[in-house]
Amino acid sequence: MKITDVRVRKVTKQGKMRAVVSVTFDNEFVVHDIKVIEGERGLFIAMPSKKSTDGEYRDIAHPINSDMRKVLQDTILEAYDKAADEAAEGDSAEATVE
């Protein structure tokens, strides 16, 4: 399975969340609402989640292994950097990486 599209829909400077991203796989399957978060050790991604009845948040979709998580995170952060650069230049805050 290959990542065929990454769309950075929102780039913000408030709070810890920096962007909301959609990722398309094999031009056939999309995962929305992946968040780019600024943590103490830099940027990372948070997969879409849902609050369960016990009050905890559980991922709705997520990579099965660490290799795929790294590929996904690296690709998303590359798209985020591109969108942030374009926003700083006055362009739209939405970017696509294919």
From TrEMBL:
Any one Pfam family match given in the protein's UniProt record, by short name: SpoVG
Keywords of the record = Cell cycle, Cell division, Septation
Q: Which GO terms describe its biological process?
A: division septum assembly; sporulation resulting in formation of a cellular spore
Quote the InterPro entries the UniProt record gives: SpoVG, SpoVG_sf
Q: Which domain of life is it from?
A: Bacteria
Looking up HAMAP family in the UniProt record yields: SpoVG (MF_00819)
What the record says about family reads:
Belongs to the SpoVG family.
Recorded source organism is: Butyrivibrio proteoclasticus (strain ATCC 51982 / DSM 14932 / B316)
The protein's name:
Putative septation protein SpoVG
Q: Tell me the function of this protein.
A: Could be involved in septation.
